[in-house]
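Q: What would this complex look like in 3D?
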Amino acid sequence: MDMNQYLDIFVEESREHLQSLNSSLLELEKDPSDKGVLNEIFRVAHTLKGMSGTMGFTRMQRLTHHMEDVLEALRSDRISANSDIVDVLFKCLDALETYVNNILSTGNEGTKEYKAIIDALAGILKGGAPAKSAKVSVKKSKAKPPKENESEKDDPAEAAEEAAAGSDSGLVEFNQYDINIMKKAFESGMNVFQIHVVFDKGCLLKAARAFIVFQVLEKNAEIFKSVPKVEDIEDEKFDFEFTVVVITPNDRELFEQEINSVAEVVGVNVTPITAEMLGISPDELQGASEKDGVSAASDAEDGIVQAAQDQPKKAHRTGKTVRVDIDRLDVLMNLVSELIIIKNGLENQMSAKDSNAAWNESIEYLERVTTNLHDAVMKVRMVPVEAVFNRFPRMIRDIARELGKDIELKMSGVDTELDRTVIDEIGDPLIHILRNSADHGIETREERAKLNKPSVGSIYLRAYQDGNNVVIEVADDGKGIDVGKIRKKIIEKGLESADIVNSLSEKEVVDYLFRPNFSTADKVTDLSGRGVGMDVVKTKIEALGGSVEVETQFGVGSRFIIRLPLTLAIIQALLVRIGSEKYALPLSSIREIDNIKFDEVKMVRDREVIMLRDMVIPLVRLNEVLEVKDAIPDEKKKHLTVVVVKKGDKLTAFSVDSLIGQQEIVIKSLGKIMQGVKYIAGATILGDGNVALIIDNNSLAL
Amino acid sequence: MAKQVSAKEHKQYVVFQIDDQEFGVDIHKVSIIEKFMNITRVPTTPDYIKGVVNLRGEIIPVMDLRTKFGLPFKEADDDTRIIMLKFNEITLGVIVDSVAEVVDFAEEEMESVTSITNDRTLDYVVGIGRIDQRLITVLNIEKLITELTERE
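A: Here is my prediction, written as structure tokens for the whole assembly.
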């Protein structure tokens, strides 16, 4: 059988399962007695085993099988979970991930057997845990993440499922409503069948198959109950089999035949349901239907049915989603951009032609539509930061164990959304900062005890939206950055003279950490690492149009604040003119626009600055840095128009010849040949079809 | 595709003029030929990079071959064309005085480079095609484009 077409689905789904295993394992480590989480882990591992088996990846299947054995032992309380067992299980996950990556790149799982891991798993089963460690390094946090509550629900729900499938009578559980329906059916002489359908384990599109079965059924009967629920079946939340109860005038053979003819169905079991089976006596049948019949289900059973009905809630967050190739979204996005450009063009012509009410109205209408369309498309591209954040708890756990520190990662705002492109890029810088915090920020247990700090160090990872930006903060309650040491190092490295260094503010000093090669060269001090590769972090974030800052208090902790633009493709910009050229300045960084007199331009240390409300702001003459040849000379101007931009908490004034106005612009890449051009962040197409360059505030601001 | 040229197969070239010299480029590398249009200058780039143009929503860099080859400046006129060359998913526009025609000749008809061309073009020449009395300098587009991407 040709499996290639299913490879993508397989890889995609395996990754999801591995991710969910990752977070469940972390929860299990926090609370080894949580049976709900354990059941969830078992279920996912089982699914993985089934999937890999179906696809013929036997090594992967074998590994998950061994994993399942251990999980089974945990589930039946033969052994109890501890960090060492979780460690081994994590290793399994890593191995499985390697398999999946191999499959993605080569279509083949590779030849690694991971014998050591399998042996370790077997070891756990044989002699209990390998050298039980007394302490669980990550303490259980008080505030349970909401996810945990969800998975706790698994327990009764799953139990209900089992009960439903395996109850004595072989019947699904009915509530009073169901029984009333059946009673009516019996009264009118219809047949009631319970039909159990089993799909082939290799069935990949089981929801689609189930749909076909449902269609067949609906042709001949009325379905009034389904276990699991129809919505769940549609969402593929069932294990290769489901049960429906139907009312029909037809015979049982018809169903057996018809359903068996559906591809990939391996078993159909049609059980007729009679009034006696439900405990309904013949007299009752004759009785009026309004009368409440005797409840067939005991109270206890009722409870189970209730639980079964709660099932949709326990479902994973996946909900109603469609996977869309990012390229297709880009196409959509480009079309929207075209629309916006046309709209801008029309507006231009408009102002030339002056007032014509109908014309005006249409343009405003077009504007509303493009704006809404733009919003809609942007929203499609938004992904919750959870997509990047979810791997961090595991990472911090591993680092903590490795370093022998007690660290707790507290995350918040995981559902804050960011553009897909940003999400893809932000992972590495965050890993870097988090590692630094865990490695160099948080002190060892002994040090913390000496300092009277809580024994468990905390790293806070926070995401929230702030206007047009998304802010991601990484804070720790560790030792903070020793500014004095950095000052010394700046002098040692001869970057600045001593008196200048001493005049720098704390913040300016800390910013040196982001300089390339600043701390890499000297690794002996305990400062090392703090700042290693920080320049890379900064470059990457700035490439995304964002900024990064540090706040630190020696002995108390540090906080890294990353600001990222919400959207990348379309921004509000200020168009300015310099000579005969037009440039766009991203509006988000503009603080204010001023006309200043030339005598307010002063020289400080060979640099031009302007005085603005007692602030000294460095002046950058855009016509000079951008090499504009036909800029208007100062003598011909009455005053100097400056645009004050903010970078971090520093201001810089850009001089321009004149302002054109605010406009929504579509950011276009300059392409491979032009990328990396100094001072330019991209280009945009104006309403008249000409190209205007977007100024890169970050590289120009002083 | 016709690209797998057997020994005797002919290849097609777009012929254009700069100054009084005729140049040719492999027709497969030409994506479109445009009339001269507004070019937006990009600061801090070499002088032979004229800037960027908007080619149906895409931003394309444009190079002035006159400057690149050290020839005197000439104002754009009605004959001026921008040939959009594409190689390796990268598009580059080149400004030429005029575009004449499409010719074809076999690869073995092409003579290796001699000193007939001036030094600055020499680097970018694949060979010289001869049609009757005309000499057509065939340019190495791959090199022209690759070099730009490696400039940084």
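A: To summarize the key features: The radius of gyration of chain A is 33 Å. Chain A has five domains: 4-152, 162-314, 326-384, 386-565, 570-700.
Q: Very helpful, thank you.
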